[in-house]
Design goal:
By secondary structure, the chain is mainly α. The chain has two domains: 1-62; 65-188. The chain has nine helices and no strands. Helix 3 (22-32) crosses helix 4 and helix 7 (105-120) packs antiparallel against helix 8. The longest helix is centred in the C-terminal third of the chain and has 27 residues, at 156-182.
Length: 188
């Protein structure tokens, strides 16, 4: 569990600098230069993800169950995950209506992703992992909503591209990637 906690702390700190201490982050970038800063940030982000994955995998060897979810919650999880992919992918496609009308769609997608997983994964490690991402994304969303918003233009073709990409990513994760990376099929 120490790896999981360390990875979560490193990830949250790295990805909260812009909000919590923006002047410190700006000084780091100015002192190191953008290429070095983004290289260090990228490497530390990968380290944090590795720690999270290793710690989560380790905690799954002897899980401590908090409750036992009813079977129907798996269906709710699958539906929430489809919607979360729409926000995650739609937020990454410039010119999509999702990006135009939803403030911080990627962050909202993380909120839906973590909520979906909290519903159907009731161990202490799950609560720690998905609960941390849920709280972090909520705080990030609150920060984003406090800033002025200038909607960009959007086109139907870019929106359809985002929706097609979201569906393709969802199906890829559902039928292959989740099992390959996590070792658990979402359909089981």
């Amino acid at each position: 569990m120490n790896y999981l906690i360390s990875g979560l702390l490193l990830f949250v700190v790295l990805h909260s600098l812009r909000i919590v201490v923006p002047s410190f982050r700006d000084r780091l970038i100015a002192g190191l230069g953008k290429p070095l800063w983004f290289s260090i940030h990228g490497v530390l982000s990968l380290v944090s993800l590795w720690l999270i994955a290793a710690g989560y995998g380790e905690s799954r060897q002897s899980p401590l169950w908090i409750w036992f979810p009813p079977l129907w919650l798996n269906h709710v999880t699958l539906l929430l995950m489809l919607v979360s992919f729409v926000y995650l992918v739609g937020g990454l496609v410039p010119g999509s209506h999702i990006r135009r009308f939803v403030r911080a769609p990627v962050t909202f997608g993380v909120i839906l992703w973590s909520t979906a997983h909290l519903l159907s994964n009731p161990t202490t490690a799950d609560m720690l992992l998905f609960g941390t991402f849920f709280v972090w994304a909520l705080l990030l969303q609150r920060h984003v909503l406090s800033r002025p918003h200038q909607p960009a233009s959007a086109t139907l073709s870019r929106t359809l591209l985002a929706l097609a990409g979201a569906l393709a990513a969802y199906l890829l994760v559902l039928f292959w990637l989740h099992s390959a990376l996590i070792g658990v099929s979402p359909l089981s």
